[in-house]
Amino acid sequence: MRSKPSSKQSPKIVTPLDARKNDLAAQEARLHDEIARRQKLIAEAPRLAEQAARRRREELIQRKSRGEARFGSPLALADKRFGYEANAATPSRSLRKHRNQGMLTFFLLCVVLAAVLVWLYTKVIGAA
């Protein structure tokens, strides 16, 4: 004599429809979490960008204030009126200028040496 299960104690039978519904609910929960995470990231983006800019400025100030060993680099801090990023490209121009000037000087010295050797050859060996 078995008694029928009452409606209160119905066994949990998972149908394909219920399984699909549970999967969709889990997927929706993951999507809501992802949306919340990305909205938080979007909200924090300006603050993170400001921190990165501040960190770059501080690194540039520290680099400029300790003095560089390169030829012709100024030891004083850069002028704040023009911004720190605007002054970052100026040392490369002066270095390029010095490099080009050095190459020209080297070439001229080589030409003078060649002229002296030719003169020496004609006077010493050519006379013999």
Structural write-up:
- By secondary structure, this protein is an all-alpha fold.
- The protein is 67% helix and 0% strand.
- It has helices at residues 16-65, 90-125.
- The chain is elongated.
Features:
128 residues, mainly alpha, 0% strand, 2 domains
Question: Tell me about the biggest sheet?
Answer: none
DSSP helix count? 2
Distance between the termini: 140 Å
What is the percentage of strand-forming residues? under 5%
Large-scale geometry: elongated
Global mean pLDDT = 81
Q: Can you tell me the number of structural domains? A: 2
- State the helical fraction: 55-70%
Rounded Rg? 39 Å
* Structural class assignment: mainly alpha
Provide the low-confidence segments as ranges: none
Order of helices and strands: HH
Number of strands: 0
Structure, briefly:
The chain has 128 residues and is mostly helical.
Secondary structure elements and pairings:
Layout: H1 16-65, H2 90-125
